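Q: My labmate handed me this sequence with no annotations at all. I'd like to see what the chain might look like in three dimensions before we decide whether it's worth expressing. Could you predict it?
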Amino acid sequence: MSDNPVAIVTGGSRGVGAATAKMLSENGWNVIITCSSSIEEAENVASLCSNKTAEVIAIQADVSDNTDCIATVNKAIEKWERVDALINNAGTTKFVWDHSDLNGLDAADFQYIYGVNVIGPFQMVKAAKEKLLKSENPCVVNVSSIAGLKGIGSSLAYASSKGALNTMTLSMARNLGPIRVNAVCPGFIEGEWLKNGMGSEMYEAVKLRVQTTTPLKKTCTPESVAEVIVNLIEKSELMTGQLITVDGGASLNL
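A: Here is what I predict for the chain of 254 residues:
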């Protein structure tokens, strides 16, 4: 069995997932990162994160596919014989910023988004539960969004899915102890994912608005969110069932 604790980070090829894998590996964790499509990016992240004391490996896995979830956990056990933390970071959306535009979404959009954002984390926890229970400080962190608290964000379906993820976090925390289950709810996160989804002009305008109107005058970075995730995993041994807003105070203005 590995002397290093072991984490699984879904959606680890970029953004918050990649930053979390990097921070954990620097702290001596072995990490599996998953991605559904961009395996070359994920492998690049893994090679950059691996060091003399910690190993990071990348695998292709779609969290909406239960078989892939089981295979991901089995890979960690096969490699290191333990799982101590699960970070459910994989997520997706369809960009329909105007929530009054109900014609911009259909049932298939909801089913796809819920498949990744809600069913995916459920399946990952289900696959990892028995392994996590063998850890001295087992932890699940679900990466949600202030969209799920405030009914805002990239689309009605996305906000709804994150609201469901938040509720599932509470139910799991109540019923899966001693596994601690928390969610982080970031606001606007700087990076290519939002820039591509918004378009450069809207992205820069929203970024400027956040930086000028919010109490802390800052936007989130992948690293600032990862820092909260890692603290939840390593240091917050009495925290469970918490929905932690990480947004520089942006949601206070909503």
